[in-house]
Write a structure and sequence with these properties.
heterodimer, A: about 475 residues, mainly alpha, Formate dehydrogenase/DMSO reductase fold, about 65% helix, B: about 190 residues, alpha+beta, Alpha-Beta Plaits, 2 domains, four-stranded antiparallel beta sheet, 4 strands
Chain lengths: ~475, ~190
């Protein structure tokens, strides 16, 4: 016998589902009365959202002085949270677009969910650059529209590139999400019995009939959108990293930033998808669609991207030493041993060491460990942005201008408040929209493939997997 | 129930004949037959795109690509044109000695706007080619057609087709194994 047994691809949907039972499983959530637990969760989310409202209101009233920013550290939690949330969003696009282009059919179970997460995460991210400008009433100066100064935005500035990148990213992600939703909204429209649902889902499904002449254009559009979203998602975090890399601050001015930021973004986003998925599939009974095999595959991606991030951390040190620039060398030593060493080692432990546990099959198939690691990774990725932003600013060229940065209660409350925004949107999504891309899941079950039917009687026959007998090789 | 329905049937024009089939295989077989019989105004309806159906129906290549590239070019030229007008023609500003026409720095925005416009072209072009939004469709008058977004597989031959003859079409669908056949009225 060969050393390796033949490994059969696990079924993507478990539990003997047919088309109708999948429809019921997914859309019953939207059609049945709102469960009590949902209201309780919504109250919690709305409380946090109110905190966000108060913190932002007070910020606009009083000014950015309420935050912990000081003289060398002019960029604090606002930029950290912005990068963190945008990064989380990237996993959604990766799952929906990149895995689509690579024909990874397992993505269909989680792509709707992950895309929703993308959109809400980008909303949360967008809060920070908008409010941190100080004079929010002239925020429209960042757009190329005429203003009272007769001046146009500075197209040489990475901060302006960011405006275009993030707003394009939000728009394209939203369109991608909506295009995917249309056939499923039509399913709910056709199943709804009350007037309000029939009307609302009817309007938003645009009169979709499932016509093959429509699917023909639709599938083309979906593929092109995936092809557009893939370079877009890479460009967005590249441009976010330009906010740092194009400046001359030691520790920021490095060419490794774009790939390293993108890897980190995918890393944290997959962790966030897992956190949400593990909770949601339990509450909504979606274990047949979002199976443990999905979790395992995502854990492998977390391990790979975590190692890439770890490699980038080491390369930063190497390049700082290799560059021969005193300031570069100093800042990296200070990161690991200086006043923020506690943050640096938190980052290292959470991002580089903790995902290595997924080398063990037992760990990556365990729901408990996966859930714990997914949260640890997100903490770690927040600290990565903290380390990058704060250490470089707090200890740059002149030691006489060094200072220690700590946040105030308002920094913390604003950050906590964005979770309110995120979860409010997410709960609305779970309640009113199909959380699984139904049409796509139907497409990947074996009953959907005409080849799996008898030619004469047109009856379904399950595909047979030919397991090759391994040849014995004598040494 | 039957009297008002009859009245409607008498008053309104027939839109076509709808047949339901039991699975994707049956649908693809009947589509092939209908296509070979020379019908052109027919369509199949399924909850998901059926693999190989486009070939069975001999659909021509989608025109969507042309719409997308048109929009993409518009985005590309539009972005460069906008920046050129604003930063070189209308109000040139010396920013740390950089040239007014600073091509490398304009790459990100040019790229983003090209992608943005292409995405608009993709989504709105797709809906345009499909004739959506179209909120009233004669097929929605058939109660059974609700299954098309759940687990039903349908084929409809429209009355507007030049070869359309009620009895012939019904016979064709029946012989192809339709489980239900219904006349659709406007």
């Amino acid at each position: 016998m060969s050393k390796y047994d033949y490994v059969q691809e696990p079924a993507l949907v478990k539990g003997n589902h047919d088309f109708a039972s999948l429809t019921r499983l997914v859309t019953d959530i939207n059609l049945r009365p709102t469960p009590k637990g949902w209201y309780i969760a919504m109250i919690g989310a709305n409380t946090l959202l109110a905190i966000l409202g108060i913190s932002v209101g007070y910020l606009i009233w009083e000014g950015v002085g309420i935050w912990g920013l000081n003289n060398p550290v002019g960029w604090g939690w606002a930029i950290i949270n912005f990068v963190w949330w945008v990064g989380i969003g990237h996993a959604g696009t990766l799952i929906s677009a990149v895995l689509f282009l690579f024909r990874q059919d397992w993505r269909t179970a989680i792509n709707r969910f992950a895309e929703a997460m993308t959109i809400f995460a980008v909303m949360c991210a967008g809060v920070f650059p908008a409010i941190h400008v100080g004079r929010i009433w002239v925020i429209y100066w960042v757009f190329p529209i005429p203003n009272q100064m007769y001046m146009w935005p500075n197209f040489n500035s990475p901060l302006l590139w960011d405006v275009f990148a993030v707003s394009t990213y939000f728009t394209v992600s939203f369109l991608f999400w909506y295009v995917g939703l249309v056939p499923d909204l039509a399913t709910i429209r056709d199943r709804a019995t009350d007037k309000i649902r029939k009307f609302t889902y009817g309007v938003f499904s645009l009169g979709w009939t499932g016509s093959n002449r429509h699917w023909w254009n639709y599938e083309k559009a979906y593929m092109v959108l995936a092809g557009l979203a893939t370079p877009l998602v890479l460009s967005v975090h590249t441009i976010v990293s330009f906010d740092f890399a194009v400046s001359l601050i030691p520790g920021w001015h490095t060419t490794i930033f774009p790939p390293y930021f993108v890897a980190g973004a995918i890393f944290s986003g997959f962790a966030m998808v897992l956190t949400l998925m593990i909770v949601a599939r339990k509450i909504y009974g979606m274990k047949d669609i979002m199976t443990d095999d999905h979790m395992e595959k995502m854990n492998i991606i977390i391990m790979v991207t975590g190692s890439m991030v770890g490699f980038a951390y080491m390369m930063e040190f190497f390049v700082a030493w290799y560059s021969g620039v005193e300031y570069e060398k100093a800042i990296f030593l200070l990161r690991a041993t200086g006043p923020y060493a506690w943050a640096y080692w938190t980052m290292m432990t959470c991002n580089v060491i903790s995902p290595q546990i997924f080398w063990f099959k037992k760990a990556r198939t365990s729901v408990g460990i996966t859930f714990a690691i997914s949260i640890v990774v997100n903490i770690g990725m927040w600290f990565e942005r903290f380390v990058i932003t704060v250490t470089s600013l707090a200890n740059d060229y002149l030691p006489s201008s060094w200072d220690y940065y700590s946040p105030t209660i308002w920094d913390v409350l604003t950050y906590v408040g964005t979770f309110g925004l995120f979860f409010t949107m997410f709960l609305l999504f779970l309640r009113f929209l199909p959380m699984v891309a139904l049409a796509e899941v139907k497409m990947i079950i074996p009953q959907a493939d005409p080849h799996n039917y008898d030619d004469e009687k047109q009856e379904y026959k399950a595909p047979k997997v030919e397991i090759p007998t391994p040849k014995v090789v004598e040494a | 129930m039957s009297t008002p329905k009859k009245n409607i049937e008498e008053q309104s024009k027939m839109y076509g004949i709808l047949g339901e089939f039991k699975n994707p295989k049956a649908l693809i077989d009947v589509a092939r037959t209908v296509n070979k019989s020379g019908y052109s105004k027919y369509d199949t309806f399924s909850p998901f795109p059926v693999h190989g159906m486009d070939k069975a129906m001999s659909l021509k290549k989608s025109k969507l690509g042309w719409i997308i590239i048109g929009h993409g070019i518009l985005g590309f030229i539009g972005a460069l044109g906008m920046m050129y007008y604003m930063a070189v023609m209308d109000y040139p500003m010396n920013i740390s000695g950089k040239p007014f026409f600073n091509a490398p720095a304009w790459v990100p925005i040019t790229f983003e706007l090209t992608v943005l416009l292409s995405a608009f072209g993709t989504v709105f072009g797709m809906f345009f080619l499909n004739g959506l939004p179209k909120l009233n469709n004669p097929l929605f008058n058939v109660d059974r057609f609700k299954k098309a977004t759940d687990d039903g597989f349908f084929l409809c031959i429209e009355a507007a087709d030049s070869l359309f003859e009620t009895d012939k079409v019904k016979k064709l669908l029946k012989e192809a194994g339709a489980t239900h056949i219904e006349e659709v009225y406007d």
